[in-house]
Amino acid sequence: MPTPDKNLRPKDISKPADILSPIATLEKLPGVYGQEGMEPDFKEIKDSWKEKYCTSLDGIVGIDTFELPKTPEEQEALVKGFLSGLEKLFTDCNKGSLEPLQLTMEYCAKCNTCSEACHIFQSSGEQEIYRPIFRTDVLRRIYKKHFSSSGKLGAFVGADIDATWEAIARLGELSYRCNLCRRCAQVCPLGLDNGMVTREIRKIFSMEMGIAPVPIHSKGTMLQLKTGSSTGLSKPAFLDTLEFIEEDIEEKTGRKIKFPIDKQGADILLFHNAGEFIAWPDNPAAFAILFDEAGLDWTLSSEIIGYDSVNYGIWYDDVQAKRVALKQMEAAKELGVKRVVMGECGHAHKAMMLTADRMTTEEKVPVESWLPIMAELVREGRFSFDPSKNNFPVTLHDPCNIVRQMGIVTPQREILQAVAPMFREMAPCGVENYCCGGGSGFAIMNSCNFSDFRNKVSSRKKWEQILNSFAAELEDPSIIKYICAPCSNCKGTIRDMLEYYKATGKFNVQYSGLVELMVNALTSMDRPFFEFLPQE
Amino acid sequence: MPKEGGGRAEYGGSYMEEVEWYKKPRQISHVGELIDMMKEMLFIKKLFEHHRSLWWASYMFHMGIYVLIVFTLLLIATVIWRQDLLVMGTTLVGMAGFSLATAGCALLLVRRALDPTLRKYTTPQEYFNILLLLAVLLTGIVSWTMVSNPFYVAAAVLTANGSAIPVFVTVHLVLLGIMFIYIPISKMSHYVGKYFSFHKVLWDNDPNFMDNEVNKKMKKDAQTPPEHSWSAPHINLPKNGEE
Ligand code: SF4
Ligand code: SF4
Hints:
The complex is a heterodimer. Chain A is mainly alpha-helical.
């Protein structure tokens, strides 16, 4: 097995090598998963990938639109495009990010406190290229060399990386080895943010060079702006799906619930990640059951973009993020609703409540999270629960966007106390949680061998946390173990993780959101809501 | 977010935990913010919590610098009001400051040079920064213990009597001056950067409401459209991004 070079330095980013830092010794998984043969190996790197894409960083392909420049002219154009974008990062067209970017570029004390906090660096067996400051230092050294006045002093001030096409290609790939979870920023004694710098690198590639992974750009924001949803779900298909879910609710629960659609002036516009309608229809169904039971005045929107809350732009491209957010806000305004309530999607929470908040100076429809609303309903006794219906171990994943980045920590716990008697926290949890490994687009990036990187490296810490939470019951398949992940992206990541490690089949580890647990515990439900429970 | 009130700061919660937060007055704890700032300034809390082995050296050094600032102020006071007790106190403070700062600085240098990871990321300029600090501290120690006495020199400086200052002490003072000029252009000014990164970046979660401060600033910024623009093909698509 190839071994990564522990002595690798940022300067080596341009070093000639087939693979600069092959992934080798990953952190050992706990319990039964620590045994030989419990974890699939990385896929072989195909020659066709090597020829086409940049596999020379770690053998993984993240940017499936980035074809290697073949001729000297193409190589030169790549370098020129990158340098032009890098220069623009520090100009007025990047006003919103300029200050934190400059602070991180200038003041890093190289104290290395952030490395301990990064799940990717830790899980990878401390591979140098994944150290939070490695990426930033490469960018810093290129910037100094090409643009700063002190750069004339060369290596003395660390202005020693030339923008060669290979270094740039590797740096581009490296910008897709970070979940933008900002756990590193939380511990930095100087308040600096390497996750933000990673996003800035992605911005150069997308906004200046037009290079971004297919699932987040052409089949992500571009598709969403065109059809209304990044899933490609058009309005008629969306309406059909709702009908199908209504039938399903009736079949399962005997309740006739109609989704309110485009109800003018409703109190709440409930905004789901459209992936829920397709991959997890039980989730919008559970919301409808609960909102119906609580007698809320709510609606869904069928307007273009009004039924898909995702905004992949926040991971890689400010312009796309703004376009999507403004259209989403428009849809809410047109319906004349009093407030927008975000459903179980972490990045959509952040996009609508934080990022979009600073995008327009006009009057906006206020946006809030579903979590405090539901916790209040629970507190007020608006639901009657029989928690014993959820008589299985439950653990909670804290989505980074909702918890660390927005500080919504207690409402979900309050709800769990009411519906899940065997709830136990992961360690660490709350704002100190680890990312599920699917953050910043990884959950939907599956080209070439990227899913291997997610399942084996970026999700490894989360998998380890889950295994530790269920340590006592894991190996007994008669006991259901439930991972509550109130976020579509995290859910997608966990779904793939369980499949990859065959954990559902072998050990009965299940996953879903929080509303599903609530509905399953309702005393008014005759049958279990979860299909994995015996249906009598 | 230490400025969050209502007990939320303790677990990292925010005003977004409230139903209809936008209708409610924001609970802000300036005391909480101040306490957290003081903990960072006086204790380097984050380093203590997350990187204890480095904290010892860093803390000694930074504390030493604070004590030396107090020493300098006391020294000036002794020129104006020479009183035995004050002189003794100043001497003790100076001794403590020099020992802490010098030991901390030397430990930081050794750690940086010996730790393979830190070494990889440290530029020659960053070693130079530490060496400059060490040189100032060491020349200071030699000046005040072997060459002259600080009370005498302080008086000479304040009365602009340069000829009374020994050469070695002059070297120390020149190095000190160079350091003061150099700090703003080097990352040694991170104490200023740190204020901004915490206040303007990490802790900036104020919402944008019609005509509040955030909103006003945004409106003002919008009056000067950017001169530069991005070049990727999708950026300039008509119909706002639809192909
Ligand atoms: S913790 Fe902050 S200052 Fe220290 S190395 Fe990381 S980014 Fe730099
Ligand atoms: S943002 Fe998260 S994934 Fe990225 S470097 Fe920081 S801790 Fe690691």
